[in-house]
Known about the structure:
Elements: H1 5-16, H2 20-53, H3 61-81
Amino acid sequence: MKASTQATLRFCAESCRPYRGRLIASALCVIAGVLIGDVATPLVFADALLRITKLTSRSSLWETFGPLVILYAVLLLLGTAF
């Protein structure tokens, strides 16, 4: 007996019904992980590169890069956790 696509999708939807909340939460975690890993982290890295180009000999490295390094580390951890 061959199942139609509609019957297969209906079966999958009915099977997932008790886990709807977990399914939605996992989908949101995947989206958040992609946004953090593929959008936010490269933007922070690009800002660090931009600050490198504007460095002077009197620049303090921690004042210039400290917040970016912390933000980058937090984003990497969050991206990995999601």
